Every structure is written in structure tokens, then in C-alpha cells.
Amino acid sequence: EEQRGFTSGGSRHVEASLIAGRSVSTGETQDDRADRQEEEVETYAKQVGIWHDNTEEYLSEKYGEPINSGNESLVYYNTENATVVKTSNISQYRDLEDALDSITLHNTYFPESNIQVLGFGLDGEENFQIITEQPYITEGNRKATQEEIDDFVQKLGFEPSTKLGIAGRYVSDQALLNDLTPKNVILTPKGQIVPIDTIMHLNTEVWGESGK
């Protein structure tokens, strides 16, 4: 399932993940690592023609005005494929590899809203961006409740995190799931909960959840 989640992000996701995740000298700091990952993936993206100096201008010209926006992302509707295309900065992650791992984890646990990587670029403030595409999920007549979300993720092996006392934060042996609240899921007309906007991390010790 993890390998399926990795490859279902598309060839660009796989290639960028391998580039960002390569090991270097043990003396490299986290800041150095983050800078190197962005520089190397930018070089790769330019070589294969998926780099955009201004992601907002590029996507607005291609898809029109965004249908939704948040602090970290802009969302566009692709009428040709009936999908949503999103450009997101990686500020909520440790580095680019962590952001790409989040896509792998999302695809592993939530294949109904599978994320594919289309490209990379910068926003108007020079923040590194990942451009992704997901299927458009039809909404039902109401929002899912937090209790319904709790039950849904517990069936997948997650438990509510008790570390910070924040709603929508869940942990399993393998992964940490943040901000899974009603605004970030869709309850379909058939009553299925589909997460569409997740922030996930491999559950390593750096996140303070006793992960290995």
C-alpha cells in the first residue's frame, strides 16, 4: 500500500521524492538540507519542463480564477478533466522531502482523493510551491462532524493525539495526521468521508509523538 501511494502520485512525484530524499554528509544542517532539496528539485523541474516562475499567473492563465484559497494554497477547477488543481507552499513542512512524503501518505490512506504532482515553482513572494491535481469530489447536503471523522480515521489505525489537545490531530505507528477537521473533508451524497486536504508526516521522533 505504501508503494502504491508512492507511485500513484505520478512519475514527477516519484522522481522529485528520490532527488529530495538522497543522503549527503552527516554534517549537513536541517536548513542546509531544506535549501539543497529545493535547489535540486528546481533544477530537475526546469530540465523536464515543469517549473513555473510564478505559479499563480501560470494557473490563472490556464484555468481562470481560483475557486478557493487559503493561507498555504490556491485551488483551481480543471473543466477539461473535472479535477481540481492546487498550488501549495511547503511552509507547514520541515522541508520539501517531508512535503512529498505527505503526498505519499495521503495517497496510501485516502486513494479516493489521490494526489498527483504536476510541477513546481514559486509564488509571488518567492515561496517554493508544489502544483498538484486531485479528482473533484461531489459534496452531500451537510458537513461531516468531528465525531464522524474520529470514527473514520480510527478504523484506519489512527488514534486522536493527546500531545497538544488539538482537534483533527491523529497518530498511528506509521504516520501523523494534522488538521483533519470538517473543513478539510467532504461527506459525499452516499455518506462517504473523503479527506481532500491533509497535512501528514512520517511518525518520526522529531514530531514528539514517540514515533520511530
Structure description:
By secondary structure, the chain is an alpha+beta fold. It starts with a helix and ends in a 10-residue tail after the last strand. It is about 30% helix and about 25% strand. Helix 2 packs across helix 5. It has 6 helices and 12 strands. It is globular, with a radius of gyration of 17 Å. It has a 6-stranded mixed β-sheet with strand order 1-5-6-4-3-2. The protein has a 4-stranded antiparallel β-sheet with strand order 7-8-9-12. Strands 10-11 form a two-stranded antiparallel sheet. About 35% of the residues are buried.
Summarize the structure.
The protein is built from six helices and twelve strands. With 212 residues, the chain is of the alpha+beta class.
Taken in chain order, the helices and strands follow as HHHEHEEEHEEHEEEEEE
Helix content: 25-40%
Radius of gyration: 17 Å
**Strand content of the residues, in percent?**
15-25%
Decide which structural class fits the backbone.
alpha+beta
Can you summarize the main beta sheet? 6 strands, mixed
Low confidence ranges: none
Going across the biggest sheet, name each strand in turn.
Answer: 1-5-6-4-3-2
Distance between the termini: 19 Å
Query: How many helices does DSSP assign?
Result: 6
Rounded mean pLDDT is 92
What is the count of β-strands?
12
| Overall form | globular
